[in-house]
Amino acid sequence: MYNKNNVFFKIINKEISASIVYEDETVIAFNDINPKSKVHILVVTKGLYTDFSDFVQNASVKEIQKFNQSLNNVIQQLKLDKTGYRLISNMGTDAKQEVFHFHVHILGGEPLNAM
Residues in the chain with pLDDT < 70? Predict the structure, then answer.
């Protein structure tokens, strides 16, 4: 069950400030406060989904498509499509998901270590 008492919900609703790099009707994207690379952006759906599985099982096809288009818009805006990037979405405690609101990390802007 989705809990509205999380930092991403508060950022979406402008209760907490963030360094926003992109926003549209479906997503908000902002700099991670603890970056793991030169560019580390969080792309957060404005829908109330806890993780990737919740999102793909319960969002509409249109909402999923729009999220992916917006994610790509952020990548292009930052010109990461020219040099490369990594997408990460942690799901659950074993993956160390810290905020239970579906989001994708974009890492790039420099050569990344192999995983």
Answer: none
